[in-house]
Amino acid sequence: MARNVVYPLYQLGGPQLRVFRTNFFIQLVRPGVAQPEDTVQFRIPMEMTRVDLRNYLESIYNVPVAAVRTRVQYGSNKRRDHRNVRIKKPDYKVAYVQLVRVSWPAPAGPPRGSLQLCPWGCLCQRRCAGAQGAPMRPDLRAAVQRQAPHKVALRHGLGVSVVALGARERWGAWGTSQRPAIL
Where is it localised (predicted)? Predict the structure, then answer.
């Protein structure tokens, strides 16, 4: 059941009533346990019912819904404050929405020859400097030959990208003083 909304009284000559969005907030969350492909998990307010959620998804987002299942998740009660008193997190409702199966057309692959894998493992629209046999800068060639490509950055046609970061996929893995130079 939605919360009660108080509309202003209409007076002749006054502005027309506005249409307000619902005051429910739902969160799409990643399930902790693997779910079927057609099932989506939401965190919803405790006051929201299955029918409310179905109408919300179908009316606002035009998402066809096959079934809705809900459960109430008990909030954690393990944490304690400085007086050793338990601090309970609030309960919340979890909804499992089964979507109507839609057969999507097979995605068309990229045209042949448009995207290609270069020797450093990145997808480029244009070939990298070393991939087409053009002479590479000596310091880049030495770094690639030493098999330390995570310390080298190359400029591609798509912008600057770090080459084959390996285990350190993000800039944050290096400290701010140890970031690889962008060439």
Answer: Mitochondrion
CATH of the domain at 79: 3.30.70.330
Dump pLDDT digits (tens) for 113-131.
554 455 555 544 444 544 4
Torsion of CA 107, 110, 111, 112, to 10 degrees: -120
User: For the residues of 114-173, what is the DSSP string, one character each?
Assistant: TSEE-TTS-EESS--TTTTTPPPPHHHHHHHHTT-GGG-EEEETTEEEES--TT--SGGG
104 domain residue, yes or no: no
Q: Identify whether 125 is part of a domain.
A: no
pTM above threshold 0.85? no
Tally of domains in the chain = 1
In a domain, 54, yes or no: yes
